[in-house]
Design goal:
The structure holds two protein chains of two kinds. Chain A is mostly helical. Chain A contains 14 helices and no strands. Helix content of chain A is about 80%, strand content about 0%. In chain B, helix 4 (about 105-110) packs across helix 7. Chain B is globular, with a radius of gyration of 24 Å. The two termini of chain B are about 45 Å apart. The chains are: A mainly alpha, B mainly alpha. The interface between A and B is large, with 82 and 87 residues.
């Protein structure tokens, strides 16, 4: 097909906003990386340009002066423990809801799903005192549990839809061979759901790694800060100390794992999020 | 399957009960308990909890800041819905209908902010709005609009509108994908038939694309509304903390301030009940308003 001049104009007219928006997305992120290599003096003199020399001083300083190492460690623990706990709790329930016929299964499923739409902020006040009673307040394992439960409805939802695609005949023939339902769940269904388990776990992990507000409420001492809290702390302090370079370095540290996960699992993440929204 | 009733129920119990207990303790109990707390005055220490009936609710209706926080929340809801839907729709149509070679590149870039931490987004944008170093003011100066420069987040009038752009920036990607999914499900024959009838690209958009992706549009709007009402306070907390002079407080950030910095836990819970009620009403109302006959060609 031959293109008319008018069509070409329309095409480039449509490209322009796309290119502009790409710049709007990429430039701040790119610039954050550049800023992390600049000295404070340079950030003031030349805030939006290329650094004159690349120095890792900000990263060293974030590590030593702001003990970002312990925050990274805390974030890792919360992410890993939260994601595993969430799976352990969600897989059996998702299987029972999807494959075992029982009275009230529909009601239970609806209960879990509607919890995705309820604003949890009301619950955080009692949860604060509940955690205090269990000695889990200001405790990264307490926070991991809260995280795991907060993503439970979403995880159950995604896993049931993945389990729905496994042919029933596989389970039936395993049962014929005398396998117990527990064996079927862990040795047949769970491995066949690997794709769903991975999708949901990557998304939960990103969620937990990024989370800020629950950490703000349920953690108190600096030693227990997750990365998001530590960054918020450095940011508030930078208003007075102007330690912008260190702040950028800590932002870079927070975002690099997400970029890496995204570049590997881009399709999975996009698919998981759209599916969650379609039902939510 | 070869198994007795008893075995089946044991297995069900194994699958469901531990999870449900955890869910009850950490989600259901706190929600109901929050409702109960709203009838008490409580500073957190256990011996001072005092039943006050509806006093907190009376306070809620007489508190001057509350109407402002509600207005701020709905301001964000409306501006975000309009901004995100227009841009996401434009991008989705451009990336699916016009054969742009680098479409996957745009898709990947535009979606990325959706998985960035709110802390990172908030701090990045605090810099963009920074009065002396920021991109916005430097840009305005560069094109000679110096009188437009202002301390965006420190200005009572401009602080709240300034929060809209980061929220749109961070939100577009997901809805772009949702709408793209809808558009790619539309059968090509619809467009071919329209073209034969001489319909322009605009007419095709209004009479084919839009009605056929109405379900996705409806879900997107609902999702933006729910996530904004349930979560707008996070970006507020990071970027302004509700200031300057309460000009950006939304319901959730006001709850946080009342409960966790001023230790009025009873009143905080009352604000929480208000958030719950308002967001439920809004969602029901929206579902009613957006209902529309399903279109099939």
């Amino acid at each position: 097909m031959k293109r008319t001049v008018g069509e070409m104009l329309v095409r480039s007219g449509i490209r322009l906003p796309l290119i502009l928006w790409s710049l709007a997305v990429l430039y701040p992120i790119f610039w954050m990386f550049l800023g992390s290599f600049k000295t404070n003096a340079e950030i003031y003199a030349n805030p939006w340009g290329i650094p004159e020399s690349f120095s890792f001083q900000n990263f060293v300083s974030a590590w030593t002066d702001y003990s970002l190492d312990s925050s990274i460690f805390n974030s890792l623990i919360v992410t890993v423990v939260g994601a595993i706990l969430c799976l352990v709790l969600a897989i059996p329930t998702a299987y029972a809801l999807e494959r075992v016929r029982f009275k009230g299964s529909h009601l239970l499923f609806t209960l879990y799903i509607s919890a995705m739409m309820i604003p949890m902020v009301l619950g955080w006040i009692p949860l604060f005192f509940l955690l205090a009673q269990f000695n889990l307040l200001d405790n990264i394992f307490g926070l991991s549990i809260v995280y795991a439960i907060s993503q439970l409805p979403f995880t159950i939802f995604v896993l049931t839809s993945f389990m729905g695609t496994i042919p029933k005949s596989l389970e039936e023939s395993a049962a014929m061979d005398g396998m117990s339902p527990y064996g079927i769940l862990w040795k047949i269904v769970a491995p066949l759901t690997t794709s769903g388990i991975m999708t949901v776990t990557i998304m939960n992990a990103i969620q937990f790694w990024n989370e800020y507000f629950m950490a703000l409420i349920f953690l108190q001492s600096e030693g227990n800060y997750t990365l998001a809290l530590a960054i918020d702390f450095i940011s508030n302090e930078a208003q007075y100390t102007n330690a912008w370079g260190v702040l950028f370095a800590s932002l870079v540290i927070a975002i690099v794992p997400v970029i890496i996960l995204y570049s590997i699992f881009q399709r999975r993440i996009a698919q998981g999020m759209t599916e969650g929204a379609l039902k939510g | 399957m070869v198994q007795t009733k008893k075995q089946k129920y044991l297995f069900l119990a194994f699958c469901l009960i531990p999870t449900f207990i955890m869910f009850s303790i950490f989600t259901l109990y706190p929600l109901f308990s929050g409702l109960y707390y709203s009838f008490f005055e409580w500073s957190g220490a256990s011996n001072t909890r005092e039943f006050v009936g509806f006093e907190n609710y009376v306070k809620l209706f007489t508190d001057d800041i509350i109407p402002a926080t509600i207005w701020h929340d709905y301001f964000l809801v409306v501006t975000k819905v309009i901004g995100i839907m227009i841009m996401a729709l434009f991008i989705a149509v451009a990336l699916t209908q016009l054969k742009i070679k680098e479409a996957p590149f745009y898709r990947i870039i535009f979606f990325f902010p959706n998985i960035m931490s709110v802390v990172v987004i908030g701090i990045l944008w605090m810099f963009i709005y920074n009065p002396s170093l920021g991109l916005v003011n430097s840009g305005l100066e560069a094109i000679g609009l110096e009188e437009w420069t202002r301390p965006w987040l420190g200005d009572e009038k401009w602080a709240l509108p300034s929060l809209v752009l980061p929220s749109i920036w961070a939100g577009i990607g997901l809805f772009m994908l949702l709408l793209m999914g809808g558009i790619s499900n539309i059968s090509k024959s619809n467009y071919e038939a329209a073209r034969i009838d001489g319909a322009s690209e605009w007419q095709q958009f209004w009479h084919i694309t839009l009605p056929l992706i109405w379900p996705q549009i409806k879900i997107s709007i609902l999702y933006i509304v729910i996530t904004t009402l349930n979560g707008s306070f996070i970006i507020v907390q990071v970027m302004t903390g509700g200031g300057p002079n309460n000009a950006t407080h939304v319901m959730g950030s006001y709850l946080y301030q009342q409960a966790f910095t001023q230790y009025n836990f009873g009143y905080g819970a009352t604000i929480g009940v208000m958030i719950l009620v308002l967001s439920l009403i809004t969602v029901l109302l929206l579902q009613f308003l957006l209902r529309r006959e399903k279109v099939e060609y």
